């Protein structure tokens, strides 16, 4: 199992959340289980998503999916997300 932490800023949290929730099918296809979605205390439009997937390869495939890129654009993601993949030791 690989843990993933993704952080990115969005134009508007409420607008982003609607698009994020509607994209559950793509996360499920990748075997991704989201364990939490967080907003920064200082900036409510700075989002961090924590989840798990079967492997780093599954995550890489998920993040390279053109549908994800389109959803991120539609949701108002600003800049390039910071993505960290971790294995528990």
Report a brief summary of the structure:
The protein is built from 4 helices and 4 strands; from the N terminus they run βααββααβ.
List the helices and strands and how they pair.
Layout (H helix, E strand, L loop, with lengths): L1 E9 L2 H10 L1 H6 L3 E7 L6 E8 L2 H8 L2 H10 L1 E10 L3
Antiparallel strand pairs: 1-3, 1-4, 2-3
How would you portray this structure in words?
The protein is of the alpha+beta class and 89 residues long. The protein has a single domain, classed as Alpha-Beta Plaits. The protein has a four-stranded antiparallel beta sheet. The longest helix is centred in the N-terminal third of the chain and has 10 residues. The mean pLDDT is 95.
Q: How much of the residues is beta strand, in percent? A: 35-45%
Q: How many β strands by DSSP?
A: 4
Mean pLDDT over the residues: 95
Radius of gyration: 12 Å
Keywords:
single chain, 89 residues, alpha+beta, Alpha-Beta Plaits, four-stranded antiparallel sheet, 4 helices, 4 strands, 38% helix, globular
């Amino acid at each position: 199992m690989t843990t993933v932490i993704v952080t990115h800023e969005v134009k508007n949290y409420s607008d982003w959340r609607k698009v994020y929730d509607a994209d559950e099918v793509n996360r499920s296809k990748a075997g991704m289980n989201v364990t939490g979605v967080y907003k920064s205390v200082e900036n409510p439009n700075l989002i961090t998503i924590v989840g798990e997937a079967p492997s780093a390869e599954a995550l890489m495939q998920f993040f390279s999916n053109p549908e994800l890129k389109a959803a991120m654009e539609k949701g108002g993601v600003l800049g390039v997300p910071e993505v960290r993949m971790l294995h528990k030791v």
